[in-house]
Amino acid sequence: MSTGADDKGTSVLDNCIIFAVSVGLLVAVAVVYHTTERNYGKNMKIHGIYWATMIGTGIVISFIPIGKYVFSGLSYTLIGAGLPIYESVRAVCSPAESDDKTWLQYWMVGGVLFVVTSWVDDVTGDGADIYWHAFLFSFFLWLYYPKTDGAYIIYEKVTKPYLAPKLRPFATDMDNMVQNAYAMLMNVAHLWIVGLFFVFLPSGLKRIVAIAVGTVYPFVSSVGAATSEEIEDDTYWLTYWSCYGILFIMMDVLENWIGWIPGFYALIICSSVYLMLPMFDGANKVFRKVLVPLAGLQELLLLRDAVIIKKQMLKDLDPERAELVRKAISKFYNEHDDEKDPEKLKNELMAGYSGMGIPQIPVITMPDFSSFKLPSFTSTKRDKNSTSSADEKTHLVV
After folding, report:
1. Residue 295: CB partners within 8 Å, gap ≥ 6?
2. Which one of 207, 248, 312, 352 counts the least CB within 10 Å of its CB?
3. How far apart are CA 58 and CA 78, in angstroms?
4. Domain count, the chain
5. Other CB atoms within 10 Å distance of the CB of residue 178
6. Does residue 128 lie within any of the structural domains?
7. Residues whose CB falls within 8 Å of the CB of residue 308, separated by 6 or more in sequence, listed in order
8. Is 384 helix (H, G, I), strand (E, B) or coil?
9. pLDDT in tens, 257-314
10. Per the domain annotation, does 3 fall within a domain?
11. Which structural domain range is residue 346 located in?
12. The model scores a pTM over 0.85
């Protein structure tokens, strides 16, 4: 993939123009996305008009100098990954749950396509680049433009009826394979052998392995999550794709300068595994500590967490106890908003818990055994010359 800064034959001025045009396109697409009503791509005429417009625009622009500035590597990167990453972060943070599935459907198509076709720029010539970039730009936009909603159509027409039934059993097998592979790699000897073998692979093959590790298992799991009723697995894999999208862009940019360093692709693989596996919970940590603050969505995430807590409370508690807990939490948040001392906050919360009137477990009083003594038994020693047990005496001492 080419982000524009390393395009063949471009000057510093060209790169500045590419950057300005790409950012302008990103802003325009974001505005259109948020101001257009979604219709799930039901009107097929809109699809025809869209593709006719994009194809005509691509053909016209390709014959004039401005074409390389509009359809550049940076422009389709921002449209295919930049905006989807931000919107995915926003979807995970928002209390609404339907947008999680919407953007997960995008990543199953657009995200995977963005990653696995990154090598095409390396084999296409200068003349063919613009057409390839124009296609990716148009396709990525078609996937999430509210009037076309291509990702939803592909999900309903292909993924759900055909892919999901075949991949769901395979996903279970892959879960076991991933767990076994992780257990094996925790053995230092196995890790050393795998690392030594990986070092001697060609750089191109290392890149393929790194991409496969970051996309194959998540794609299969995302298909299963999208077709299930639970929203938690949608959120989990959407969080992963948000983080992995940034990791991949970093890899694609940095490998031009430091990709030759031994261990570069191994670090990418380890980072992908860290983000992917539930035992590390890496994607959630990076999401909350890095992506959410960068996007300025801390307040929105807190609202999402509050909704999750309330749903869990209503699920686990009977209505009467849930009402008591809700009132205690409301009182806790409504009072002493300026208090920041953790110890005082803890004491205040425990005071609210004590005043909830929740029935306590009855304490069973045990009887006092302190005055009770067990009997002890002593036996007289038998005389060596005694021959009868009649001389033995057993004394009971109380």
Report:
1. 86, 89, 90, 93
2. 312
3. 18
4. 2
5. 15
6. yes
7. none
8. coil
9. 887 888 889 899 889 989 998 888 999 999 999 999 999 999 999 999 988 888 888 8
10. no
11. 301-353
12. no
